[in-house]
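Quarterly update from the structural biology core.
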Amino acid sequence: MRIELHGIAISAGIALGNIVLLDRTKMIVEKKSVGKKDIEREMERFLEAVNKSKDQLLSIKENLYHVETGEHLDILNFSIMMLEDELLSGEVINFIGAEQVNAEWAINSVLTKKSEAFKNVEDVYMKERLADFYYLGERILRNLHGVHDGISYLAAGSVLIAHDLSAVDVVSCAKHNVIGIVSDTGASTSHSAIVAKSLGIPTVMGLEDITVKATLGDTIFIDGFKGTVIIDPDKNELKKFKKRRTDYIKLEKQLLKYAKLQGKTLDNIKISVNANIEIIEELDLARSYGAEGIGMYRTEFLFTNSVYFPDEDEQYENYKKVVSALDSPHVTIRTLDIGGDKFPAGMEPSKRLNPALGLRGIRFSLQEREMLRQQIRAILRSSPENKIRILIPMISRLSEVLDTKKIIQEIAQELGMGETWEIGVMIETPSAAIIASDISEEVDFLSIGTNDLIQYTLAVDRLNEHVSYLYTPFHPAILRLISGVIEAAHNNNIPVSVCGEMASQLSCVPLLVGMGVDELSMNIHSIPKVKKLLNTITEKDAKEILENSLKLKTESDIRDYVREAIVKRWGDDFPAEFVEEIVTSV
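Predicted structure, tokenized:
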């Protein structure tokens, strides 16, 4: 029976294959009393299961060394480090001895205790961080009971369906003929989602109950661009999907040709096309897809991918890899953007915090000054000769810029470094956009984070299905704000980058070009498409489209006009897939 479902588009791509179901049913844990004479044996059982879990991960890691020269090893290193953490193991051991209970109950109790600090957290990002602990807990429990936990060899063309997947599961998928991944749960911020993107496996998550509806061996179609999944398509659909898959493979080859293009318009206006990355394993992919620089390296994953904050040297080694990966003057590292609901394991959030507008971004960093200073030192050390760009998130007032700038200057002086760094600000709050001219006098560049800027300006939670339809980049207030920010920056002779989703939306790029944007930074997969579009359009035409758009008063009128104008002027020069993306943009 044909079933069509819509979830969260995680990793772009088209997949058509046969369903394989992964059983990740949670182990049932019973509390059992253990006599004093058996406590030591119970502790040994736990340690044996931990060591077996560690051996399993080391085996996967060893295979990765041979096959992919170390890609995605950070994910495995984190899991192995957690298994080696004596504090975590010690807590379980102590619980077994103090409570005289079985190892299974002790593991469950310790993890439950760790989750107490996060019980009121609604942020999906941090829930996923906590989930990483539970994945390891489940692995240990399975090994205590002798339940096989690995993904065995799969037939070619397998599409994996699971209720939930850990990042380690995703890495294993890449080794066993998996061409697509679908899950009941998951979000774009999860470790597993980030790894699926970096591996280029078409993935859709958040389908809620696909594991109930799916049948082993059935045909399944995945559209990783739109988040659509169709089980058991009819004959006509199957024929169409096979063609789409073939066309997609051809397009991927064509995209790699577009990747070699320069970031410039047809009338030779240079616009750098850069990559947004979250993990260093994405650097090779960024290079192959034609990234001209790193427009934003989000450092949150480096911090939340550890039981504790990484020290200065650990950060330095990480940032050094980013700086040296591309032969580019554009390497931008964003300081830690956590707080509010985003805390790494081991740090308890204050109950006084407002989860949406509380202590987060630079507000958090300025309160945790030693942590900020440590990160700044590591960033500056990573690029002693070439200029490194330091990007400050969640700015809402000028004093935050001045305070941060002073800290950077002090550390640069301590290190004996000259002008080897630049400071920039994320424009993602309406207040920052309004005072962009004042901010521009104090910094070297601006980076517009359109995702949050749209959300805050329109008072719309884009993850809330009841109001997400109101979220749109075509609202006249958004276009006027962004245009004003770019004008303010240029009046102060500094460049502007757009690093939100607007930078990769083909229907939005001509508007940004018309505004005079200097750089576009985006997800890696979109880079070749945007390069092709830039090399097809002219700044003169883009300015005309922008001018006409700003005369319109509703988002629907602007969206419809922009679609029509782009297709009319350049539609014949674009692949059909580009045109479809433009006319279906929201």
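The chain has three domains: 3-24+150-253, 36-144, 259-583.
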